Amino acid sequence: MHRRELLKILGVAAASPFVPRSAHALLRAGVERRLDAIGIQLYTVRTLMDRDVEGTLAALAEIGYTQVEFAGLHGKSAKAMRAILDRHHLTSPSTHIALDEIRGHWARVLDEAQTLGQRYIICPWLDADQRRTLDDYRRIAHELNAAGETARKAGMTLGYHNHNFEFTPIEGTIPYDVLLAECDPRLVAMELDLFWIVKGGQDPLAYIAKHPGRFPLVHVKDMTKGGEMTDVGKGAIDFAAIFAQSARAGIQYYFVEHDEPPSPLDSARASYEYLRRLRF
C-alpha cells in the first residue's frame, strides 16, 4: 500500500490524538518510501566538467538530479560556480577537499564552501604514508577534530569519506573503527561509501546498527558479484535494505558515484532512474 492511499483511508482521523496507537504505527511501518532528492558526486563526470562545466551541470539537472557534491571547481571561482548552480536549480550540500588543503588553506576552503551553500566539507582520502599505523589514524582523527571545531563555528561540518583500505586490519584492529572511536561525532561526520565498505569485506548495516546517527551522507555506488564497480542497480548491493535504515543511520544526502564510467552521463542517467524507482 502506498502512503497516499493509506492517508486517504485514515483520513483526518490520522491526525487525531484519539486514534489508536496502532493506526499511527501503520503510518510509520509497512509504507513504501522513496528518495526525496538524489545527488551525484561530480567525480563521476569529471572529464566532462573539465571541458564544459555549465553544460555538464545542465545535463545532470535535466536527468533529474537536484544536488551535486564537488570534487574540485574545474577552474571556476566559488562565486561563478554558485551562479551556475543557481541557474540550473541545483544545490551543493557537500564538497570533497584534500587533507593538505584542509591543513594549509582551511580558512579559504570554509569561505568557498559558504559561497557555494555547502553544509559538509569531506576529507576524501589518505595517502599511503599518512596511514601506516593505528597511531597515524589516531593523529588524523585528532587533526580532523580540531578542523571540525573551526568548521562548526563557521556553521559547517567536517566529514570523512572511506575507501576500502580503512577496513584492512592493522595489528588486529580495523582502522575505520579507530576513526569512529577517536573522531568526535559532534565535530566529524562520516560519509559512508557503500561500494568501498562492501569491497572492504564489511556490512554497512552492521556499522549503522553499531554507530547510529554517524552517517549523514552516503555514496551510492554499486558492485557486481565479481567485485567490480557498476552503475547503481546493476550490481549486488541491496540499497533498499540499507536505505530502510536511513533514519537510524542519520542519512540526509545520497550521492551517486561511479569512478570510471565508460559513458559518464549514461551512467548517471541509469543510476538516477534506478534510484528514482526504488522503494524501501
Structural summary, described in words:
- The chain has helices spanning 3-10, 21-28, 46-51, 53-63, 78-87, 99-104, 106-116, 134-153, 175-182, 194-199, 204-210, 239-243, 246-249, 264-277; strands at residues 39-41, 67-70, 91-96, 120-123, 157-161, 188-193, 217-220, 222-223, 229-230, 253-256.
- With 280 residues, the protein is α/β, with parallel strands linked by helices.
- It folds into 2 domains: 1-32, no CATH class; 35-277, Alpha-Beta Barrel (TIM Barrel).
- The strands form 2 sheets. An 8-stranded parallel beta barrel has the order 1-2-3-4-5-6-7-10. Strands 8-9 form a two-stranded antiparallel ribbon.
- Helix 8 links the parallel strand 4 (120-123) and strand 5 (157-161).
- Mean pLDDT is 92; it is low at 1-28.
